[in-house]
């Protein structure tokens, strides 16, 4: 009944709703659970709340998160807003308290991506006598060659790969499925890896590859190649998108390849490398270096 809020019971119901109805990813559910249980002292709070108490408690928790980064505070605010919106829709509150929670504005950053030369430098580390392990090459090519998220690459199964069509089916965020084309090099390396690693269910073994292990593998790949900045998995996904777009790929096509729900999430890749912009200006602008000034 609206006005009498059973905190623990409703948090549990909300998390089940996000899991089974909204098909939120396990990582998202983990964050939602952590945020709500921190905000409302879940373990020690089994009493019934009034709406005023609910809002006061949420605001106090949000103020207590002041020392966190803007991105973390923004995520926690989004959790509270989502929880309150759900409660209102379920007639558990008389007002939609989500409007009382203000998320801090997070400055938009251009995604970090590698240049083509940096990608080639990493690929060279997988050649020769002192070559890096083939397993690391497979991971690198799934992230850069297929634009996969690290969680998607780690959980990829051999059954997801359709060799004849040269594609694989990926179940991404919110259990949304998409088809990703395999570049020739990625396909060839996957075939080699399958012969060497045996016929397990997952590409990286009998069970999904641990994401922390995958992060370390990518970081080592960048370090061996002598990259100036530490290499992270998402930088390879950004590089996949940036290089495709700068080569003429359609933004809608890129949206499908990346598995973005909205085009706005893909539009951040409309930036191009500064070197690419400079070359375009020089070659195409009337005042470029091909123009002679008398």
From TrEMBL:
Start and end of every Tyr recombinase domain?
109-282
Query: Domain Core-binding (CB) spans what residues?
Result: 5-88
| GO MF, one annotated term | DNA binding
* Record-linked Pfam families: Phage_int_SAM_1, Phage_integrase
Q: Where the protein is mainly located, per its record? A: cytoplasm
What's in the GO CC field?
cytoplasm
Q: Which InterPro entries match?
A: CB, DNA_brk_join_enz, Integrase-like_cat_sf, Integrase_catalytic, Integrase_recombinase_N, Integrase_SAM-like_N, Tyrosine_recombinase_XerCD
The keyword Iron belongs to this UniProt entry's keyword annotation:
no
Q: Which PROSITE patterns match?
A: CB, TYR_RECOMBINASE
Keywords noted in UniProt: Cell cycle, Cell division, Chromosome partition, Cytoplasm, DNA integration, DNA recombination, DNA-binding
A single Gene Ontology biological process assigned to it is: DNA integration
Q: What is this protein called?
A: Site-specific recombinase
